[in-house]
Design a protein that fits this description.
CATH class of chain A: Mainly Beta
Shape of chain A: elongated
Radius of gyration of chain A: 16 Å
CATH topology of the largest domain in chain B: Cytochrome Bc1 Complex, Chain D, domain 2
Strand order of the largest sheet of chain A: 2-1-3-4
Number of domains of chain B: 2
Strand order of the largest sheet of chain B: 6-5-7
Helix content of chain B: 40-55%
Oligomer: heterodimer
Distance between the termini of chain A: 30 Å
CATH architecture of chain A: Sandwich
CATH superfamily of the largest domain in chain B: Cytochrome c-like domain
CATH superfamily of chain A: Immunoglobulins
CATH class of the largest domain in chain B: Mainly Alpha
Number of domains of chain A: 1
Structural class of chain B: mainly alpha
Helix content of chain A: under 10%
Structural class of chain A: mainly beta
Number of strands of chain A: 4
CATH topology of chain A: Immunoglobulin-like
Distance between the termini of chain B: 48 Å
Number of helices of chain B: 11
Largest sheet of chain B: 3 strands, mixed
Chain lengths: ~80, ~260
């Protein structure tokens, strides 16, 4: 997910605080059931990289959701088929 | 010192080239080969390579209509996967109207202002880097061919001159590190051979994507010289020389570097 990830700690040349604008949470659901969630704060990393494992026993759909400051929200999905 | 010694010494002195020589072709390497396995792994996996975020953004921008003309890059150039293949491998390229070499970023801005009626994008802005990364990514794996154009020869030569020009408070030329000492380390970091194979590239130090000009400017700050402005002909000539130096090496954009 591409995002500006502004920490909220930086100041402009005039000394004004640049407001925080980061992704604050990520969740992954499989067939509607939440299987992974992470909350983010400034100072975790400029560009956090997440990797996680899950075991699926049936075909279905992964849904990914990113939520952030200033009303940011993005989703993505991926299907998996168990034969 | 015996006479024989003195002659031997003089012979050694005279056999030293004026500038401690170019790197032999068979020893030329991409900066990639200097990296630790972990960093290589980030670059090699597109889902882990943060530079791919800019490439994806660039693809969106490629198709986005902009400016007075209401045109997108794709309206004229179509599918970048076809039309932009190999283009970045030839940049900086000669521009007839300007009569000098222009970088890929400058070409993007020229197209924006002249054909799209859109304002130029600021150097190092996210959008300009994204477009450059997307375009250069279409040449990934293709051999660098910049500087082949004979009209560019004077600009390559100028770039080479600048590469060998001592400047700044430390009175160092690029060549003092990147030709003479590339097999050594500066503090903990490998000194590489100055082959710009993967720009724009994601530097872990920057925590973001950046252009070759940004890299050159930070080297200049490092030798305490006054850095050329973004887009200055000197920087573009340097870029051109460095690309011609890396001729034949595959494009890696978006590369990851420490």
């Amino acid at each position: 997910m591409s995002h500006i990830m502004e920490t909220g700690y930086r100041r402009t040349a005039a000394g004004d605080l640049v407001p925080r604008d980061i992704i604050t949470s990520f969740a992954c659901r499989f067939n509607g059931e939440e299987i992974f969630r992470a909350d983010f704060f400034p100072a975790i990393a400029a560009n956090p990289f997440l990797s996680f494992f899950t075991v699926v026993t049936e075909s279905g759909k992964f849904e990914f959701e990113w939520v952030g400051d200033k009303g940011f929200s993005e989703t993505a999905s991926a299907s998996i088929i168990i034969e | 010192m015996t006479l024989a010694h003195a002659i031997a010494f003089a012979a050694v002195l005279t056999s030293l080239p004026a500038f401690a020589s170019d790197i032999p072709p068979d020893q030329r390497r991409s900066g990639y080969s200097f990296m630790a396995a972990d960093t290589k792994a980030i670059q090699d996996d597109d889902t882990a390579n943060p530079g791919m975020l800019w490439v994806l953004d660039g693809e969106t921008l490629w198709k986005a209509k902009t400016g007075n003309g209401g045109k997108s890059c794709a309206d004229c150039h179509g599918d970048a996967r076809e039309t932009m293949k190999g283009v970045a491998a030839r940049y900086p390229a000669f521009d007839k109207t300007l009569g000098r070499a222009v970088s890929l970023e400058q070409r993007i801005n020229l197209e924006r202002t002249e054909r799209e009626g859109a304002p130029p994008l600021a150097y190092e802005s996210r959008d300009l880097l994204a477009l450059a990364a997307f375009i250069a990514n279409q040449s990934r794996g293709m051999p660098i061919a910049a500087g082949d154009d004979p009209t560019l020869k004077p600009f390559v030569d100028k770039g080479r001159e600048l590469f060998q020009l001592r400047q700044g408070q430390l009175n160092l030329a690029c060549a003092n590190c990147h030709d003479d000492n590339w097999d050594k380390r500066l503090a903990g970091s490998a000194i590489t051979q100055a082959h710009p194979t993967g720009y724009p590239e994601y530097r872990l130090e920057w925590q973001t994507l950046g252009s070759l000009e940004r890299r050159l400017r930070s080297c200049m700050a490092g030798i305490r010289a006054q850095a050329y402005d973004y887009g200055a002909p000197e920087l573009v000539d340097l870029e051109l020389y460095l690309m011609s130096r890396a001729a034949g090496m595959p494009i890696e954009t978006p590369a990851v570097r420490p």
